[in-house]
Design brief:
Order of helices and strands: EHEEEEEH
Strand content: 35-45%
Helix content: 10-25%
Radius of gyration: 13 Å
Distance between the termini: 18 Å
Number of helices: 2
Structural class: alpha+beta
Number of strands: 6
Number of domains: 1
Length: 99
């Protein structure tokens, strides 16, 4: 699922830390963050953020479990716009951002 935070009130690290996310890694011009849904590593929200013209372009999904095969990055996930859980999280993040 993708959305844009138009006018963030704080920087990218502060925003996602306030929302309960932990920085995972930087890949090129994107930063990856995760937020667990339980006390276990999975399921978790996994988001990638790119800053373009002072806007945060967010692309995120839910990882339901880790990759099943060694050396693979593929895993069971929830990506679609029709996911109520993803829609609610997008609205929560926009609210935390002040917009």
């Amino acid at each position: 699922m993708k959305f844009v935070i138009e006018k963030p009130q704080v920087n990218i690290n502060v925003l996602f830390r306030r929302a309960g996310y932990h920085f995972q890694k930087r890949e090129g011009d994107e930063m990856a963050f995760v937020r667990r849904l339980t006390d276990q590593p999975f399921p978790r929200f996994h988001l990638f953020v790119k800053v373009v013209d002072y806007k945060f372009h967010v692309n995120f999904h839910i990882d339901h479990k880790a990759a099943s095969y060694e050396g693979q990055k593929m895993h069971s996930g929830e990506y679609g716009e029709d996911s109520k859980l993803l829609q609610e999280e997008a609205e929560r993040l926009k609210s935390v951002a002040g917009g």
